[in-house]
Design brief:
Elements: H1 2-13, H2 17-45, H3 67-96, H4 103-124, H5 131-156, H6 172-193, H7 199-210, H8 215-222
Helix pairs in contact: 1-2, 1-3, 2-4, 3-4, 3-5, 3-6, 5-6, 5-7, 6-8, 7-8
Length: 223
């Protein structure tokens, strides 16, 4: 699981106890989320539901960086960016949910994902990162956004827009809009807040929106 790997890397990074407590709790949270989703599926199916075994991908490597920066980039990718997008996605799902079945599940997971996102932002704002470290991190931001946003948009292709309303499902179009708005409202300002220059990240967003084939460009037309 990603947070098991991230927790180990944050210990080596020298994250403070508050961040380590959050990352340790996130390991348990993710297992709890899977069980919540399984139980919710059983309510809809009126029968048993099973979960596939969790994947154990290798931790991402950034060989041209110092170990310290590599660990910060790991936290940026999987926590600051990915979990922030997850918060926006779940918020949009909750806004759509009218049925009492998914509402408490979405609220519980959303609350946890907010904490998970804070882990990455805390690492990016850490005093352990030097000015030179932050310059290096800023140079990697387009690549991190490309991977993370690209994965979200690719996965959303399996989410049709026309499912029964009111059950906390949003389709690919609303997912793209949520991602687009989150870049402007949270991620790009967040980088500046933790003293990571967002110039290259903003350029990546502008280029993605400018491409006629980009899902972000299509999302702008839907917003």
């Amino acid at each position: 699981m990603v947070f098991t790997q991230l927790h180990a890397e944050l210990r080596l990074f020298g994250a403070n106890e508050g961040v380590l407590e959050l990352s340790a709790r996130a390991i348990e949270d993710e297992a709890f989320h899977a069980e919540l989703c399984r139980l919710t599926a059983e309510l809809y199916l009126q029968g048993p539901a099973t979960l596939a075994p969790p994947a154990h991908p290798p931790a991402p490597a950034f060989p041209v960086c110092s170990a310290r920066v590599s660990r910060a980039l790991f936290a940026a990718l999987h926590s600051a960016i990915n979990e922030t997008l997850a918060v926006s996605y779940l918020s949009a799902c909750l806004a759509e949910a009218e049925s009492e079945t998914p509402q408490p599940v979405l609220k519980a997971i959303l609350s946890d994902e907010v904490r998970h996102a804070r882990i990455g932002w805390a690492v990016l704002g850490s005093p352990k990162l030097s000015r030179h470290d932050r310059v290096t991190i800023a140079s990697f931001m387009p690549a991190l956004l490309d991977v993370c946003v690209g994965t979200w948009l690719a996965d959303s292709e399996d989410c049709p827009d026309h499912l029964p309303a009111g059950h906390g499902h949003i389709g690919r179009s609303k997912i793209a809009v949520a991602i687009d708005q989150t870049l402007d409202d949270v991620i790009l300002p967040g980088l500046e807040h933790v003293r990571v220059d967002g110039t290259l990240a903003r350029r990546w967003v502008a280029d993605a929106r400018g491409s006629s084939e980009s899902a972000l460009s299509r999302a702008r037309s839907l917003a």
